[in-house]
Amino acid sequence: MVSTRRIVGLFSGLALIAGTGLAAAPIASATPQHTCPPKPAPAALGTTSLASVLLSGGGATFDHNWKDYNILTNAVLAVLKAKPNSPVKVLTDGNVAVTAFIPDDAAFQRLVKDISGKWVGNEQDVFKAVAGLGIDTVETVLLYHVIPGATITAKDALKANGVSLTTAQGGKITVRVGWHTIRLADADTNSRDPKVVVTDLNKGNKQIAHGIDRVLRPIDLPN
User: Fold this and answer.
1) Sign of the CA dihedral 180, 148, 221, 198?
2) What is the pLDDT of residues 6-31, one digit of tens each?
3) For the domain that residue 95 is a member of, what is the CATH number?
4) How far apart are the C-alpha atoms of 211 and 140, rounded to whole Å?
5) Is the pLDDT of residue 35 over 50?
6) Structural domain total, the chain
7) Tens of pLDDT along 75-96?
8) Beta-sheet strands, E only, within the chain
9) Which residues pair with 184 in a beta bridge?
């Protein structure tokens, strides 16, 4: 919080000599002190949830745009349908601060290719392959993308090279900052680290997200 500084003014005055009607010589005025105006307090963060952002504009509808988040949205819905009290539910509560690194649809397409060896050409089939891993696995992977209790903007992340973040899954990811790029080192040492490609989704709220081009992996998958 920015503190308010008291500005002290120094005034000169005239003293009258009783009975003479003459004014005394004026007292020299001190040079006024100059202070910077107080900075406004930061605005309170809003409470729009990431779930509502993901669902807006038909976010659960599969389409041909591989750069949005239809597969992720459906994965969240599938987990909450099967396990209503899953920790994934935090994404629906905008009063709770979280930072989520959200893989786009192409990221899940790459994951399915790495796991199955097959390149799947439409979003619905990619989601089916992901769901086929089992709800518990999907839940674990989703939670590995969520940093609870923190609202981390892109500006913050660019200053956090080497910082280890503890995820809602319990594992850790490490921020790697390059030339105006942010990568996230996960538990899989064999794969290329995901790169942040979209920043500050839902900025101004307690829950913020950054789009990434690969799925973070909570285990070390074999080549």
Assistant:
1) negative
2) 322 322 332 322 333 333 344 344 44
3) 2.30.180.10
4) 19
5) yes
6) 1
7) 999 999 999 999 999 999 999 9
8) 98-103, 146-148, 164-166, 172-177, 182-185, 196-201, 207-212
9) 175
